[in-house]
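Structure ticket #2291
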Amino acid sequence: MNKSKKKRWYWGISLLILLLFFFIRVPVFAFEFEDKTYYLKSDHFDLSWIHSVEKEEWIESYRRKDSQLLLTNTHFKTFGAGVPSQSNDVSFEDGYVKMEINQLFNELNLTVSSNVKTTIMVDQKEIPLYQYTEDYSMVHIFIEKLPLWRLVKGGF
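Resolution: structure written out below.
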């Protein structure tokens, strides 16, 4: 192969990679605050907070399923306000009641505060949402398909 063909081949591959970088879209969790949006590349996360009535930790596990959020299960220590009344599978683990839920949501609208310590847990990492905004602010959680170049910036 002569130098001219090698050069065209190199530029062609480079252009293809660049186009892919701009046009391939990847589904991610979007956490939209009042003034900024953060993205989570993982396909799952746990949402934890202190229940306002029982004053006990509550944990919900979510997975990405196509363009929706799938609530797979919930963990809590005591029954009370907001506890699901039915579940296919209930177990007890480490002092928590674990209920299988498997319910799809298009989005979550969540009020966060330092009082309830609203936190995202993913892959051994804790992300305290209440430290990213003012108390009692809303966080809109949904699935967004982002071009690869957008994932370089804007993550937690």
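Closing remark: The CA atoms of residues 88 and 100 lie 6 Å apart.
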